[in-house]
Every structure is written in C-alpha cells, then in structure tokens.
Amino acid sequence: MTEQEKDLLIQLLTKFTSLTSQEQQNENLLLQAKADVEKQLGTDLMDTKIDDSSDGFPTVMTMPQMAKFLQIGISKAYEMSHWVGFPAVHIGRQVRVPKKALLKWLEQQKYQERLDEAQLQIVARKRR
C-alpha cells in the first residue's frame, strides 16, 4: 500500500469509523477497517475502476457529477453531502460520493418513505 493510498484510506475510514492515531499507524488494522467500510458500503473502495459502467458517470463522483446524476441543482447536492447518513466523503474541501453507496442510499430512502407512508395510514385509520 503506497503512502498516498494509505492517506486516502485514512480519510475515507475517518468518515465511517473512529480510528485512533495508533490504529492509523498500523497497516493491518487499516486493512481490517477498510474491509469493514467496504462491507458497509457494499463496494471495494480501492480496487474499483474509475468508470465501470456505460452510464457515463464515474465510480466516485464529484458534486457536479452527482447533481447531474440525480438531476438536481448543485446547491442541493452540496446540501445533501452534509446530511447525516448520506454517503459523501469529505477530503479537505473536496467532496466525493461513491456511486454504489449513493444508489444503496437511494434504495434505503425509498424503503423508508414507504414505511413512513404505511405508518401514516395506520395512524389515520386509528383516528376514524
């Protein structure tokens, strides 16, 4: 693992886990934490191709790319990047969003929306 990969990995892992400075120095612990994050995101962060699909969007998107992908404004994309649970990775002032993690997040939102609707219907029935 190169120093650049190690630094990037530490930044990514900091977003999803809490590493002590001792753990950041131990490469074996870094690799284990990387595996844990990949399991959580459902993707291999270091071994994916830059553009692995024919949809024209890279595996890891910038905010303008994500805005275009979701067909929303750039301001809304940046706002979303600060939402709790949103799969954005902040690297300094830069923000990146893994496409697979974004798609997984969107599916979870769809499921949560259906659950909320069902709960509202139950409450409405009880009021009758």
Automatic annotation (TrEMBL):
Stretches assigned to the Helix-turn-helix domain: 61-109
Q: Report the superkingdom from the record.
A: Bacteria
One Pfam short name: HTH_17
> What's a single GO MF annotation on this record?
DNA binding
What NCBIfam families does this protein's entry cite?
Answer: excise
Protein name (database record): DNA binding domain protein, excisionase family
Q: Which organism is it from?
A: Mahella australiensis (strain DSM 15567 / CIP 107919 / 50-1 BON)
Q: What broad taxonomic lineage does this protein's source fall under? A: Bacteria, Bacillati, Bacillota, Clostridia, Thermoanaerobacterales
